[in-house]
Prior knowledge:
The complex is a heterodimer.
Chain A: E1 5-18, E2 21-34, E3 38-42, H1 49-56, E4 64-69, E5 72-73, H2 79-89, E6 90-93, H3 105-110, H4 120-133, H5 149-161, E7 167-171, H6 179-196, E8 199-203, H7 207-210, E9 215-220, E10 223-227
Helix pairs in contact in A: 4-5, 5-6
Chain B: H1 2-12, H2 14-53, E1 59-62, E2 73-74, E3 87-96, E4 103-104, H3 106-112, E5 117-135, E6 143-144, E7 157-158, E8 178-190, E9 204-208, E10 220-224, H4 225-230, E11 238-241, E12 244-253, E13 265-268, H5 269-276, E14 281-282, E15 284-289, H6 295-305, E16 310-313, H7 314-318, E17 321-322, H8 324-361, H9 363-371, H10 376-412, E18 415-420, E19 432-433, E20 452-453, H11 461-464, E21 467-470, H12 477-503, H13 507-514
Helix pairs in contact in B: 1-2, 1-10, 2-8, 2-10, 2-12, 8-12, 9-13, 10-12
Amino acid sequence: xxxxxxxxxxxxxxxxxxxxxxxxxxxxxxxxxxxxxxxxxxxxxxxxxxxxxxxxxxxxxxxxxxxxxxxxxxxxxxxxxxxxxxxxxxxxxxxxxxxxxxxxxxxxxxxxxxxxxxxxxxxxxxxxxxxxxxxxxxxxxxxxxxxxxxxxxxxxxxxxxxxxxxxxxxxxxxxxxxxxxxxxxxxxxxxxxxxxxxxxxxxxxxxxxxxxxxxxxxxxxxxxxxxxx
Amino acid sequence: xxxxxxxxxxxxxxxxxxxxxxxxxxxxxxxxxxxxxxxxxxxxxxxxxxxxxxxxxxxxxxxxxxxxxxxxxxxxxxxxxxxxxxxxxxxxxxxxxxxxxxxxxxxxxxxxxxxxxxxxxxxxxxxxxxxxxxxxxxxxxxxxxxxxxxxxxxxxxxxxxxxxxxxxxxxxxxxxxxxxxxxxxxxxxxxxxxxxxxxxxxxxxxxxxxxxxxxxxxxxxxxxxxxxxxxxxxxxxxxxxxxxxxxxxxxxxxxxxxxxxxxxxxxxxxxxxxxxxxxxxxxxxxxxxxxxxxxxxxxxxxxxxxxxxxxxxxxxxxxxxxxxxxxxxxxxxxxxxxxxxxxxxxxxxxxxxxxxxxxxxxxxxxxxxxxxxxxxxxxxxxxxxxxxxxxxxxxxxxxxxxxxxxxxxxxxxxxxxxxxxxxxxxxxxxxxxxxxxxxxxxxxxxxxxxxxxxxxxxxxxxxxxxxxxxxxxxxxxxxxxxxxxxxxxxxxxxxxxxxxxxxxxxxxxxxxxxx
Lengths: 229, 515
């Protein structure tokens, strides 16, 4: 049965063993995220934000409960299958941009198309179009070190959206940027959400960024709450 | 993307790439030079041995006989006295070479009938001693022929029936002096119909001709070139075998210009057997094997077949070589080999260390690629590819280092000496006798300068077989291929370890390290 929900989390728990003790990072999280939503997640450090993002991104398996993405129960998938899901449906944006330092902006965007086995010409065209979308086509041949922080993050956004993902997961995407650049990046994400219908889930400490989201979540001590405006 | 990413990564880490490549290259170069030197030294050994045993001889069969306690004795019959009352001595002994035992010629048929043996040839090694001179009046002399010592120094002594080799002086009575020569010659009877195996198989005819099958019963001789030169003999001249003249039909030399053949001269086997009274007997059997891989099994079969015989392969004979060639062989086979292995291991360790640290440094990068959907095997291929290209550069450097190293060795061309210290032969030394301290020559006896004795051609085959040759090491294609393969193996090991570590990276852990 197909649902309109992109994500559906039921009684999701994640516990880690630290120094012989079990630490619960997520305690029975129930959450639904619809397609096309713009969701922000806030909360104190160590509250479970990163763990929740890892679960949503298929980077780690839950201890119990279920998490479905486009009707696929991620908790039952093998590592290889999860890799496929990530390659096809999920775009990541990181606080430190995580670009490959030896590759140009264009080649960095192309790395996201490698898993799909895109042809060289097609890959080049799509990567260039994605850079165009973030207004960086004129810097396609530049290495990350030759770009500013904001430009690097825009290359990272181009890398995330070039494969037309269902969802973009952003971990503190503006954490290392000045206010002006921060606003430009957030505007870009809002525009992608509105114009392309891409679901955006971002983790942030910055309330001004969180306020741009249609749905605000707060997570503390492993429990998620929806923040009402 | 694979090659773009690989090229950029190696260029980005150029210093590290070159360090690993140079470490691998230097070690591979060393391995190539050591392997080539080993092959060169092995060739040099073959050159020396082929001079003595002929080319194509894989195994020699001999029989060692221990000397009698009293050594060889000369018993002179009644001799006429000269006008001054002195006694003239002129006697020749022809007998089987010292320490050599004889086989019935039928053993040759048994040997050639052994599985894996393609050819066999029997020879009879003889030793001819000419004792010529005068002894002053009143002396009754018994002369003991030289007894070789363990080190091979031959010391003729007079009136020494106990075989005392110390040269402690005259214990006889009434020895009033004398003047005489001992001339020793090694003669080998060879079968003119079987020259493709044995001492004459690898020789070059310097003048005249080699034996032909029609020479089987002729009184003809082929001379070693060094012997011919020392004794100023040429084709057309004559040599005596037990008083009988043999016409010199040819002069031969082994392939190595400075080496000698195993005997001073060669005569037909039948004539050697006749002259020495050893009809139907041989002392040496030279064997050719059908394949080098069968030598050990043939050797084993022959030992079973002829339990009293000494069955030696070329490898066994090489162990009897002494001199700097032998030292160089030991150096290459022990120190250099281990040095190569150690350097190689260090190079491998450096390659593994840098590849591993590279993966650690790239944790975030590799984790990101996993997060965006790169399969683990693609990342493994990437790391492995980088490592193999680095080792490929190392192999290239190694080939250059190896070629330059070989060029340098050949330019320097170290001179190696070799002598055969075989227990089956007469000892070394110059065949001379130096009077010991305290030795007082009898009245009228004048020892020749530097001692007295033979002309240095008979006693010391080992010394006579001493040879020098320039070490030349060749470029061997298979050695280069092995060098390249070792370098790539190093890259493969380092890459496998690095990529194994990369494959173990969890994308979540990789991303968490960012925070």
